[in-house]
């Protein structure tokens, strides 16, 4: 039990307040002096610590992206900007990955540890996770697209483990979005963008208003409104993907096509489903099957490009309200309300229409277990020429396309009070946050029993789908609604200040207690639970927990130029137990321009509610099957079953950081940091490729010919994960008399190692610089050149991602090329209060590097890292009063 640890840390919090009060100077400050001290710009809290300090060179590496860079980056959303930072080294996801339940949402995963290991905060406090987990059921995450962009003052990215300060999920680091404070005035603006190759038209509008000065008026209110809309980009709108044929590329075939348009399967041979005139059903093409799936014979095939979305359409509307009211010279109340509505739509590329084929399942409504659905065309069906029940693969255009629409409504409401005395600050707050999701699929699903009846009695016209009676189609066609909701309620109290003097200075401290309640419910459409839907995609989660925590942190000046940080946090979870997270750091400044820092910590990640509950997932994807009877080592598309595990232990981590900071002049800064994260009890599933290679009948289901049908998996505590790397951050400013100010900055991350098992209980394998199990480029950098003179501003940003090894080699490709993207921004503010600007993303129209392991229905590149928008233009204006 962790109750004693919680009691001790809570006592430290109270003792800190008493010690601070006893250590006050006998000469009390005047009220005016206290107010001035309370809002001193030199006294700040930096992400990774709760102690206010004047020196922002902390014990941990923190990358700060300020308002100026936010506006001139060329990125129009918080998600786009955060994904571009160098510490986001791979193994991530974004809204272009529209084949899962988190379609249209975006997260950030630092250090290649996925988004569930990076904590996202808004003004230092948590927000509710997105209702649909990503990465199967494992990755619960905060949807960055639901957070305010125009109200943001800066982004602080802590690139070190911080469980001792923030608790779970801060294993890889913390992203803290900090909104504008004490803003007065009015800003509004709009922009319009479109791609050079067409499509993806984007419009934005914003309004930011602030009233009242906290110093003179005793209050301040900030209101921001934001609208963002973007059209959908489909595969047939780009030259690279519109044909769906990639056989001129390494490992490429007709990967964008489906051979399962209409055909019989007879003795392992493909026989096209033709009418009396020798024609395929309308919309299908008679062609050889081998270039698509390796089967001998011909088939009625479908080019899926016109029915596959590369980037979903998006409509986002956000409102943010923040207010502060001075109650007394030392006490102020504050509160905020955030509301966001996001809707995205995409065509489900891997199955844009319903296809009856082998390996299809449906739930048994009585047992709740999956059972196979036959793809045999009955012997008496008028379109069966064989006189016996014969396997078919047939795509039903007349049931409509699988258009997915994801609607998300999220909010956070917070109220608090804070105060400052001469030797300590205190703050208390309560908050509620939530996210409600609704996924609607308007077509592309079939009613199991009505379809079987129509095939048995021949009422479905398989040669001329348009001739089928509408009543028959209406009885078969299914549209579904999948709901989910995530909730977070909490309260906290914290105090920080100074305890007493040592010869080298005063001991700073911070302490606090927290409580939060989390819940996540994701339900199946009722048609799935009733056993009606064929090929059900299941993501059923129902979990909740309470979390209590207490923490304390001390900054101890040992020498005038040497500080030590010690911190500890105790967390108790109602669903699995407790965790204790200590941290120690040291900062030594032997010279005015040189600082050395080091830290070591233990942390944890609690099993997510989706991992740690009786969750069930059925999903569909592809995997290389070395035992395929028709084409060994070809990519197949089985059904994937994954279930949760209520006996999971939390992931335990040890993090180390060692760095040096050079500041030889006020315009020059260079920091170099080495990091290492060691993770035990890694929560995950077995590698699907390894499971298929193992070919255990308990996990791998095949039909009588040996064709892959299903793969079974389960969340479990695996062995370990180890990763390390180097961060380099540099900035240099040159001020001139006649030519303005020039600035060069760069953030670079080198991934040294990323070791994890490829299968449960297996040896650690190094994934760094390869796509062995996840794409993890070894090098990533963002470099920015900026110029400012009078009314002119311009900058050029270079985003670099190194190539990576193809493991295993696919189609003769052993390495994927590097990627370079240049974004250009230019602004002119020659009109009073007005700024006009233009941005060009991907100035050189660089295409994503070809990856032979990805050619599939969507695109021949890693769409977790890249997209196919190409060169993109944006123009806009801002007006400030």
UniProtKB/TrEMBL annotation:
Residues covered by the TonB-dependent receptor plug domain: 61-174
Leader sequence residues: 1-23
Membrane topology label: Multi-pass membrane protein
Limits of the TonB-dependent receptor-like beta-barrel domain: 397-843
Protein name: TonB-dependent receptor
Source organism of the structure: Brevundimonas olei
Keywords: Cell outer membrane, Membrane, Receptor, Signal, TonB box, Transmembrane, Transmembrane beta strand, Transport
InterPro entries according to UniProt: Beta-barrel_TonB, Beta-barrel_TonB_sf, Plug_dom, Plug_dom_sf, TonB-dep_rcpt-like
Family listed: Belongs to the TonB-dependent receptor family.
Main location: membrane
Location(s) in or outside the cell: Cell outer membrane
């Amino acid at each position: 039990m962790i109750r004693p640890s919680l009691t001790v840390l809570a006592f430290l919090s109270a003792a800190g307040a008493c010690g601070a009060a006893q250590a006050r100077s006998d000469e009390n400050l005047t009220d005016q002096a206290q107010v001035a001290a309370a809002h001193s710009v030199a006294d700040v809290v930096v992400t990774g610590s709760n102690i206010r300090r004047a020196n922002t060179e902390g014990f941990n590496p923190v990358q700060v992206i300020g308002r100026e860079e936010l506006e001139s980056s060329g990125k129009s959303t918080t998600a786009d900007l955060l994904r571009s930072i160098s510490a986001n080294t791979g193994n991530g996801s974004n809204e272009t990955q529209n084949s899962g339940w988190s379609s249209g949402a975006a997260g950030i995963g630092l250090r290649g540890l996925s988004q569930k290991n990076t904590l996202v905060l808004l003004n230092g406090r948590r927000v509710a996770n997105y209702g649909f987990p990503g990465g199967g059921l494992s990755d619960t995450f905060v949807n960055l697209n639901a957070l305010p962009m125009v109200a943001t003052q800066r982004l602080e990215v802590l690139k070190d483990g911080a469980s001792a300060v923030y608790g779970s999920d801060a294993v890889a680091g913390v992203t803290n979005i900090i909104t504008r404070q004490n803003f007065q005035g009015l800003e509004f603006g709009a922009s319009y963008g479109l791609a050079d190759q067409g499509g993806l038209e984007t419009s934005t509008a914003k309004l930011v208003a602030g009233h009242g000065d906290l110093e003179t008026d005793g209050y301040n209110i900030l209101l921001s409104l934001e609208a963002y809309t973007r059209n959908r980009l489909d595969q047939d709108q780009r030259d690279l993907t519109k044909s769906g044929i990639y056989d001129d590329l390494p490992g490429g075939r007709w990967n964008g096509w489906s051979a399962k348009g209409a055909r019989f399967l007879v003795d392992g041979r493909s026989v096209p489903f033709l009418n009396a005139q020798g024609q395929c059903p309308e919309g299908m093409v008679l062609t050889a099957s081998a270039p698509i799936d390796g089967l001998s014979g011909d088939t009625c095939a479908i080019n899926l490009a016109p029915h596959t979305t590369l980037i979903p359409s998006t409509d986002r509307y956000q409102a943010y309200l923040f207010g502060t009211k001075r109650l007394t010279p030392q006490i102020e109340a504050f509160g905020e309300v955030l509301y966001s509505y996001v809707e995205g739509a995409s065509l489900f590329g891997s199955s844009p229409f319903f296809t009856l084929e082998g390996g299809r399942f449906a739930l048994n409504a009585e047992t709740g277990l999956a059972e196979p659905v036959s793809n045999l065309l009955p012997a008496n069906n008028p379109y069966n020429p064989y006189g016996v029940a014969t396997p078919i693969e047939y795509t039903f255009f007349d049931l409509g396309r699988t258009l997915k629409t994801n609607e998300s409504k999220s909010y956070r409401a917070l109220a608090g009070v804070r105060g400052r005395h001469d030797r300590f600050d205190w703050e208390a707050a309560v908050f509620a946050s939530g996210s409600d999701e609704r996924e609607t699929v308007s077509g592309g699903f079939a009613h199991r029993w009505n379809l079987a009846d129509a095939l048995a009695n021949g009422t479905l016209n398989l040669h001329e789908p348009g001739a089928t009676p509408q009543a028959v189609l209406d009885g078969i066609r299914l549209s579904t609604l999948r709901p989910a909701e995530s909730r977070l309620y909490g309260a906290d109290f914290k105090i920080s200040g100074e305890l007493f003097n040592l010869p080298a200075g005063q001991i700073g401290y911070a302490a606090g207690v927290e409580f939060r309640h989390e819940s996540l419910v994701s339900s199946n459409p009722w048609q799935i639970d009733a056993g009606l839907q064929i090929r059900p995609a299941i993501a059923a989660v129902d979990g909740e927990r309470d979390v209590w925590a207490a923490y304390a942190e001390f900054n101890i000046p040992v020498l005038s130029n040497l500080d030590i940080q010690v911190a500890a946090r105790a967390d108790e979870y109602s669903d699995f137990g407790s965790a204790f997270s200590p941290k120690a750091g040291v900062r030594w400044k032997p010279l005015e321009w040189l600082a050395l820092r080091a830290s070591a910590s233990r942390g944890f990640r609690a099993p997510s509610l989706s991992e740690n509950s009786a969750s069930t997932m059925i999903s569909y994807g592809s995997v290389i099957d070395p035992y395929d009877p028709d084409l060994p080592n070809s990519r197949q598309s089985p059904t994937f079953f994954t279930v949760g595990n209520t006996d999971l232990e939390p992931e335990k981590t040890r993090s180390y950081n060692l760095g040096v900071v050079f500041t030889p002049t006020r315009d020059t800064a260079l920091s170099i940091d080495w990091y290492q994260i060691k993770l035990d009890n890694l929560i995950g599933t077995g590698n699907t490729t390894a499971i298929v290679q193992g070919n255990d009948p308990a996990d791998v289901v095949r039909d009588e010919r040996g064709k892959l049908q299903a793969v079974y998996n389960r969340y479990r505590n695996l062995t370990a994960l180890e990763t390390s790397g180097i961060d380099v951050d540099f900035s240099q400013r040159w001020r001139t008399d006649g030519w303005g100010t020039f600035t060069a900055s760069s953030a670079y991350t080198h991934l040294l190692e990323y070791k994890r098992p490829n299968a449960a209980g297996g040896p650690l394998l190094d994934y760094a610089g390869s796509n062995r199990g996840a794409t993890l480029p070894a090098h990533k950098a963002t470099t920015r050149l900026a110029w400012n003179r009078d009314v002119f501003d311009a900058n050029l940003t270079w985003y670099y991602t190194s190539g990576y090894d193809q493991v295993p080699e696919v189609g003769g490709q052993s390495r994927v090329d590097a990627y370079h993207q240049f974004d250009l921004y230019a602004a002119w503010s020659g009109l009073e209060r007005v700024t006009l600007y233009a941005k060009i993303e991907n100035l050189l129209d660089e295409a994503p590097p070809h990856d032979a392991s990805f050619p599939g229905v969507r695109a021949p590149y890693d769409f977790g890292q890249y997209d196919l928008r190409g060169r993109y233009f944006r123009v806009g204006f801002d007006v400030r009063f």
